Amino acid sequence: MININKVCVYCGSSEKCDPIYLEAANLLGKELAENNIDIVFGGGSVGLMGKLADGALSKEGNVVGIIPDFMNELEWAHKGLTELRIVKTMHERKHMLIEDVDAVITLPGGCGTFEEVFEAITLKRLGIYLNPIVFVNIKGYFNFCLKLLEHCIDEHFMREMHRNMWLSIDRVEDVIDAIKKAYKWNANARHFAVV
User: Which of 163, 99, 96 is nearest to 135 (CA)?
Assistant: First the structure.
């Protein structure tokens, strides 16, 4: 069973989305903090990012934000975090977000969120990142994304085995259990990365 000390959470910064997504982000922050799991995220103060951090901080959780300097200059950063790391580029941010985490959790978001989770899946396929990737599929938000991944497998751009790289759950309350039960991946994955 996987030991969970620190997770990366990808999520959006929209405040105009359905409030159910904002509530889920806040609940996830609380759940992780209550289970003594540190959070690494994009460092933003608004939308799901802000709600995630606020939820964890309300339960005295450890929350680390990683944000590029241009976003910090625009005052997008959350001011109450345990730690805020300012980096030069988006690429550096993505690298630091996933470094040394025990799992990646993806909440609803826009193109940035999709780009981040697809990079994590790519790194997992290549045996570089080995830990669980969990989609929290609130209100079926990721249905089309998951269908696209299935289509990649059906069309032989990925193998059947690659389906084990991610899992999808419907409720925030199931995140920790899902991570603990995730399929164990290893660096040998690079030997069957090519179809």
Answer: 163
Beta bridge partners of 40: 8, 64
| pTM, two decimal places | 0.96
Helix, strand, coil percentages (3-state) for the chain, rounded to 5, are: 50, 15, 35
Residue 192 counted as domain residue? no
Residue 184 makes CB contacts below 8 A (sequence gap 6+) with none
Asked if the structure places residue 135 within a domain, the reply is yes
Q: Structurally, how many domains does the chain consist of? A: 1
CA distance 188 to 185: 8
Q: Look at residue 193 and tell me if it is in a domain.
A: no
- Number of C-beta neighbours around residue 133 at 10 A: 24
Residues in the chain: 195
| Domain that includes residue 129, residue range | 6-181
Whole-number pLDDT of residue 144:
98
**From the centroid of its chain, how far is CA 118?**
10
d(CA 122, CA 133): 11
Q: What angle do CA 155, 161, 167 make, to 5 degrees?
A: 95
pLDDT in tens, 127-170: 999 999 999 999 999 999 999 999 999 999 999 999 999 999 99
Report the CATH number at residue 150: 3.40.50.450
